[in-house]
From TrEMBL:
<dbReference type="Pfam" id="PF00497">
    <property type="entry name" value="SBP_bac_3"/>
</dbReference>
<dbReference type="InterPro" id="IPR001638">
    <property type="entry name" value="Solute-binding_3/MltF_N"/>
</dbReference>
<dbReference type="GO" id="GO:0030313">
    <property type="term" value="C:cell envelope"/>
</dbReference>
<comment type="similarity">
    <text>Belongs to the bacterial solute-binding protein 3 family.</text>
</comment>
<keyword id="KW-0732">Signal</keyword>
<dbReference type="InterPro" id="IPR018313">
    <property type="entry name" value="SBP_3_CS"/>
</dbReference>
<protein>
    <submittedName>
        <fullName>Polar amino acid transport system substrate-binding protein</fullName>
    </submittedName>
</protein>
<feature type="signal peptide">
    <location>
        <begin position="1"/>
        <end position="22"/>
    </location>
</feature>
<feature type="domain" description="Solute-binding protein family 3/N-terminal">
    <location>
        <begin position="55"/>
        <end position="280"/>
    </location>
</feature>
Length: 294
C-alpha cells in the first residue's frame, strides 16, 4: 500500500468526491460478526505449532474491497477476513490479519512468517507449483469503462488499461492481450499497473485510463461506489477460484478446507458472503486446488 496515499487522497478530494477511495466507512448495513463454535475433530487436524500458538496469521493487502479494506477507524475488514475468521474459529484459532504488499505475501507463506494468504488470490496452475490453495469462491475477470465509452475487452489494442500490479488481470489478461496486439501488427495496450485496485479504478474515473480490469467482484464493487462514473463493459471471462494459499503439502490445507466445509454445511458460509452482497460463485464443497476434499 505504498502508492503515495496522502497525495492520492488530496487528489481525490480535489477532483472527484465520487471516486473509488482508499477507505470505506465500514461494514454493510445489517452486518454481524459470525463466530462459530470450535469443532474438536477439525481442531485436531491443525498443525501442532499453529495450535500451540492459538492464532492463524494471514497476509492481506487492503484495499481490495469488498474482500479486504480498511474502515474509517483503520481496521482491516471485509468478506474474506470474515470468512477466514469463521474458519479459524472452527479450528479453535483466532485469525490475525497481517498487512503486507501483495507481491510479498506468497514469499512470506513460503518462509513461514505467515500461515496463509487472504488477499483475493486466484488459484492458478502456476501458483499451485509452490502452494496449495483452499478455494472458497469462483470469480472471473471483468472490465469497466467510463459511461458510454464502448470499450471492447476483446478489441483493446491501443487503449490504456489500469490494473492492480501482479494480479491475474495484470499478468494473465491485459499483458497477454497487449502481446497479441503486437503480434498482429497493431498498437499494444498501455498497461497502467498500480499497487492497489482502488487506485487503478480511480485512474479510470479520472480519465487516465480507458478501462479498468479486475476480478469481477472487485470491479462490481468499484462500479457501485463510483457515483455513476464507471460502468461494466463486456462479459465476465476467465472464471477461476479464489483461494487461501498455504505451504505445499502442509497439514494446514486439509484442516482449513475441513473448516470451510463445516461453514458450508451449517450455512454460515452463505450468510457471510450474503452480508457482503456476494450471491454468485458459491462452492457446494470445499476444494483444495479445485479438487473436493475427501
Amino acid at each position: 500500500m505504498s502508492f503515495i496515499r496522502a497525495a492520492s487522497a488530496l487528489l481525490l478530494l480535489g477532483l472527484c468526491s465520487a471516486c473509488v477511495t482508499n477507505e470505506e466507512q465500514g461494514t454493510p448495513e445489517g452486518w454481524s460478526q459470525i463466530t462459530p463454535d470450535v469443532v474438536p475433530e477439525i481442531a485436531a487436524m491443525v498443525p501442532a505449532d499453529i495450535a500451540a500458538r492459538g492464532t492463524l496469521t494471514v497476509g492481506t493487502n487492503p484495499p481490495f474491497a469488498p474482500f479486504e479494506f480498511k474502515n474509517s477507524a483503520g481496521n482491516i475488514i471485509g468478506l474474506e477476513l470474515d470468512l477466514i475468521h469463521a474458519a479459524a474459529a472452527v479450528m479453535g484459532l483466532e485469525s490475525q490479519p497481517v498487512q503486507q504488499d501483495f507481491s510479498m505475501i506468497l514469499p512470506a507463506v513460503t518462509s513461514g512468517s505467515l500461515d496463509a494468504g487472504a488477499s483475493g488470490f486466484t488459484d492458478t496452475d502456476e501458483r499451485r507449483k509452490n502452494y496449495d490453495f483452499v478455494d472458497f469462491l469462483y470469480a472471473g475477470v471483468q472490465w469497466a469503462q467510463q459511461p458510454g465509452s464502448n470499450v471492447d475487452p476483446d478489441n483493446a489494442c491501443g487503449l490504456t488499461v489500469a490494473v492492480q500490479r501482479t494480479t491475474v488481470s495484470d499478468t494473465e489478461d491485459v499483458r497477454p492481450k497487449s502481446e497479441e496486439c503486437e503480434a498482429q501488427g497493431k498498437a499494444p495496450i498501455k498497461v497502467l499497473a498500480y499497487d492497489t485496485s482502488d487506485t487503478a479504478a480511480t485512474a479510470l474515473v479520472l480519465g487516465r485510463a480507458d478501462a479498468f480490469s479486475a476480478d469481477s467482484p472487485i470491479t462490481a464493487w468499484a462500479v457501485e461506489r463510483s457515483g455513476g462514473k464507471m460502468e461494466l463493459t463486456g462479459e465476465m471471462f476467465q472464471a477461476a477460484p479464489y483461494g487461501w494459499p498455504v505451504p505445499k503439502d502442509s497439514e494446514l490445507g486439509p484442516a482449513l478446507a475441513a473448516a470451510l466445509q463445516h461453514l458450508i454445511d451449517t450455512g454460515d458460509y452463505a450468510r457471510i458472503l450474503g452480508q457482503w452482497n456476494i450471491h454468485e460463485g458459491y462452492l457446494e464443497h470445499a476444494l483444495i486446488n479445485e479438487e473436493a476434499i475427501k
